Amino acid sequence: MNNIFQLLMSLAFDSYKPVYVIARVLYILGAWKLLTKSGVKGWWSLIPWAREYQLSRCASREPEGRVYCLTSAAITVLVIADICFRWNAENETIRRLAPLIMVVLIAVMIMHFVYNLRIFSGFIEVYGVSKAWIILCIFDELRFIPMLVWGFGKNYQPHWKVEDLQAEMERLATHGSAAVMEKGLTVNLKDRHVTEFFRKRYLLKDIHLAIPQGHMVLLLGGSGAGKTTFINAVNGYEKADATVLLNGRNMYTEYKKMKYDVGFVPQQEMMRSKDKVSSSLADIAKLRLSVDIPKKECKKRVESVMDTFGLIPVKGNMVEKLSGGQKKRLSISMEFLSNPSLFILDEPDSGLDGVMARELFMQLREIADTGKIVIVITHTPDRVIDLFDDVIVLAKDSSRTGRLAFYGSIEEARSFFGRDKMEEIVKAVNQKEEGGDGLADEYVLKYAEVQHG
């Protein structure tokens, strides 16, 4: 362990050698020029940690940049703690803690190294250079070379600029809003954000759409595109800077009155395994239905919902004895008891085979046909795509903000993206590091241009 400590300390204190100091100065100069090329203020290169964060933005790796900065701070704290521990090595308790500190330090340094490579791999994509450049990024003493070459080389230009791209997004996406529908769902969402690193991080931005009654809508988007955040904003669970109207009523200002007008079925099943099917629904009915409804009417509603979802034959069975498909139907039935106008389901077909999934989606289609709005997230949309009216496509842009890349009919979506399958559309808007084509910005801007004529 002492040998490991000596190695780490030598790496830390080597930074004071003249050669390293020169390399560091050249790195900062290159970073200044590179930041400027990407539309970010060059003076950020003078501020440790903030410099790497801003560079990560230029490399389209902002989430990785946040982790990189945190691990940098953690390494500094752990190295100081380890030195202090060794100065007080005579204390038995401190002596026992020292190896643990060292193990944590090594783990953090490995993470730090990995995220550094991820940031530089982003630069390789942004500048369209050979992947062989990553070799120079491995060593601190050589990292200044790509910084200088990319920063000062006239032949090296980024494919996009951070500020320019954001300005174009704002210009196209923030104007106008969806017309309010008296009968249907109208969403005019300006943004949903959190505060991280002393600045706003936008989870969603500029999503405007209106869904008529009786429509069954597919909600598409890759990992991190904001599907769950969007759903929570629509149903009022996590309020955004938005106006959400359901049949002319405001979901935010009238949330207590309207919360049962929206049925939400999460991916995880929320049922007591030791209850009978009929008991589970009866208990939910007591919570969801008005206290003014007579017991006979309440029981009739439970029976009707069980009949709709094919649960009458198993109403006396214990929940734990149900098949996967029956549990899904019971989970949906529990939310459907209150007869919601808007029905949202997150992967209701998860774990179901093709036949069972189609049967379930046909029941959802029948619900929509009664005049309700049904919004569904599914990772296997193409096997039931003929049952949907419309599709919402959310995409994560270069700043990792979820935006509206498309809303319209299934055929319009195929024409807009030039792809026949919905899964191919998701691949098109996914980032390259997620196995996609990295075309999110292109389609977000294209859709915004179409909307604004």
Walk me through what this model shows:
The chain is α/β, with parallel strands linked by helices and 453 residues long. It has 17 helices and ten strands. It has helices at 2-13, 18-37, 50-58, 62-87, 92-127, 134-138, 144-152, 162-173, 227-234, 255-258, 277-288, 295-308, 324-336, 354-368, 410-417, 422-429, 440-451, and strands at residues 184-196, 199-212, 216-220, 241-246, 249-250, 262-265, 342-346, 373-377, 390-396, 402-409. The chain has a six-stranded mixed sheet with strand order 6-7-8-3-9-10, with helices on both faces. Strands 2-1-4-5 form a four-stranded antiparallel sheet, with helices on one face. A hairpin with a 2-residue loop joins β4 and β5 (249-250). α2 packs parallel to α7 (144-152), α4 packs antiparallel against α5 (92-127) and α11 packs across α12.
